[in-house]
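sry for the spam today, last one i promise. struct tokens for design, 586 residues
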């Protein structure tokens, strides 16, 4: 296994071109995290892996090493600061002085976007194509002015859901200048005027923009293909219709809470002008049968359709729509409560090319629907049936195996039993992602069958299984990488089994597991050599003294959420920093 590679002399053909080695590494490794162990093999491999690294995620613990990392990885194209909480301005200035040619930057979740840092970075990173500024505490028109001026080649921009937690305290500050309010049409107008290459923009959650913003964008950004305006209270159907009608290249639009009190004719007719629209998201909206019929008449190249928690339409309207669009690959009809097993059987005749379906919160759907989908949709890769009525009916004696299904979300199905889950995993033997949180009818017997049948499981969620204490992992080389068992009854014996069988584990969440002690945690940490994150919050029976031991014992750890009450000493803080591990205070 790659994470267990030890440094030792190797006979390497130095005459083999580096391009060949790069191809070999790409074929052997599915993620850049494996480069770390491979780089230990030889100096030659170190040089090659340094060149292959194109993305870097920066945390608070990474900051002291950032200058060295930027010199080491000179081919970086993407930097991610979404988990960084320090002085972003100085970091942006540092990056600007590097020789990097960045194409993507994520500065989401920040307290503020310092104007000087953006300006300095933009003056040196002229080829930046993608910028994510979502969920920042303060976002104002002045920020959009600076973004538009500093990054003229932007193709993708996300300024969704600004929080404005400290908005009033920022008024009059050096960064706010004369722009003392949140984002308005003025800022969006500046973006639309300067960003001629804009292809994708997310304006969701900006409560003070109006129809003018959409009109500016659809009139001036001729390359616009994707736009999202969820939770924008002053955006009306008229503006959405204008955008659809006047953006000839528009392929994706995401809106919500439209159609109240009724669907306007201009909105229905706009779809006749949408020649290339393939992705349509109308979540939480009033969607009438007439609107669905308009979409049918438009003959769109529709690929993805999201009607999650929509109301106002009937089964007849939905059937008409799906009978027209046989090429749909993704559909979400979450929370459409009138749907029955018989309805899904009728719909399944027209969705044979489907790869993903979301039926969460459809409370009338039972095991019969699961059987119908896996039998009639041979390309199906992902099924979400969270909070349905699974377990209510038995399976037929004969069923069809569907090896394409890789992801199942069956959480919060209280009636789901061991017998049902045995059938499910027999039908879907190639599962990689499985969520069974709060399915309290499943016992250790069911989990033994899961690991026996599904050797490809990589991500397992068993949150809030208070009755589960132990389970057997049958495979000697379990591929499990992420295990979430929050609030479960998992004990030390179960953790010992995880450590023994799941040596590829990267992420372990044990928050609120009261049966776990430091004994079980040590088994995991000692045996899972690639472990990067562990959450022990509210694990009241785990001694807080184990934290420093974990950091020293497992160098791969990058984030630890310790038991409540843990406060690191100054010497421990230095230890954690030197190991590059982020340890939160309990």
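last one done:
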């Amino acid at each position: 296994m790659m994470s267990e590679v030890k440094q030792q002399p190797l006979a390497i053909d130095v005459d083999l071109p580096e391009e060949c080695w790069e191809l070999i590494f790409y074929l052997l490794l599915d993620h850049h995290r494996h480069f770390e162990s491979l780089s230990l093999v030889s100096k030659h491999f170190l040089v090659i892996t340094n060149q292959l690294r194109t993305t870097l995620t920066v945390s608070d613990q990474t900051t002291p090493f950032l200058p060295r990392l930027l010199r080491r990885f000179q081919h970086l194209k993407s930097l991610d600061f979404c988990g960084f909480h320090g002085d972003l301005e100085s970091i942006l200035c540092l990056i600007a002085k590097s020789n990097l040619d960045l194409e993507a930057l994520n500065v989401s979740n920040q307290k503020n976007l310092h104007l000087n840092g953006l300006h300095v970075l933009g003056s040196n990173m002229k080829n930046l194509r993608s910028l994510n500024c979502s969920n920042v505490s303060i976002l104002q028109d002045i920020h959009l002015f600076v973004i538009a001026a500093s990054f003229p080649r932007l193709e993708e921009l996300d300024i969704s859901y600004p929080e404005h937690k400290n908005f009033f305290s920022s008024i009059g500050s050096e960064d706010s200048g004369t722009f003392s309010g949140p984002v308005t049409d003025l800022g969006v107008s500046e973006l639309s005027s300067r960003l001629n290459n804009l292809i994708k923009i997310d304006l969701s959650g900006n409560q003070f923009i109006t129809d003018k913003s959409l009109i500016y964008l659809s009139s001036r950004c001729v390359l616009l293909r994707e736009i999202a305006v969820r939770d924008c209270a002053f955006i009306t159907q008229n503006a959405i219709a204008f955008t659809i009608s006047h953006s000839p290249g528009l392929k994706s639009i995401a809106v919500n809470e439209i159609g109240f009190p009724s669907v306007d004719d201009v909105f229905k007719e706009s779809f006749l002008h949408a020649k290339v629209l393939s992705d349509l998201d109308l979540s939480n909206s009033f969607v009438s049968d007439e609107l669905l019929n308009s979409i049918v008449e438009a003959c769109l190249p529709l690929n993805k359709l999201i009607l999650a928690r929509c109301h106002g339409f009937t089964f007849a309207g939905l059937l008409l729509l799906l009978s027209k669009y046989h090429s749909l690959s993704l559909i979400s009809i979450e929370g459409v409560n009138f749907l029955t097993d018989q309805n899904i059987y009728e719909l399944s005749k027209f969705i044979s090319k489907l790869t993903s379906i979301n039926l969460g919160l459809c409370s009338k759907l039972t095991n019969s629907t699961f059987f119908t989908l896996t039998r009639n949709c041979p390309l199906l890769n992902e099924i979400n049936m969270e909070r349905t009525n699974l377990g209510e009916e038995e399976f037929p004696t004969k069923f069809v195996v569907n090896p394409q299904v890789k992801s199942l979300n069956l959480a919060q199905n209280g009636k789901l039993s061991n017998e049902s889950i045995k059938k499910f995993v027999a039908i879907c033997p190639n599962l990689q992602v499985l969520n069974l949180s709060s399915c309290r009818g499943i016992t250790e017997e069911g989990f033994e069958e899961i690991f026996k049948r599904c050797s490809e499981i990589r991500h397992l969620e068993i949150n809030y299984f208070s009755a589960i204490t132990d389970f057997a992992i049958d495979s000697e080389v379990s591929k499990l990488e992420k295990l979430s068992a929050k609030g479960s009854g998992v004990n030390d014996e179960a953790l010992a089994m995880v450590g023994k069988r799941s040596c590829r584990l990267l992420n372990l969440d044990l928050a609120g597991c009261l049966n776990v002690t430091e004994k079980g945690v040590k088994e995991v940490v000692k045996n899972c050599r690639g472990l990067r994150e562990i959450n022990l919050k509210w694990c009241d029976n785990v001694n807080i003294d184990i934290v420093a031991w974990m950091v020293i014992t497992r160098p791969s750890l990058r984030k630890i959420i310790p038991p409540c009450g843990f406060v690191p000493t100054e010497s421990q803080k230095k230890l954690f920093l030197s190991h590059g591990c982020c340890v939160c205070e309990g």
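The first strand starts at residue 55 and ends at 57. ok im logging off now
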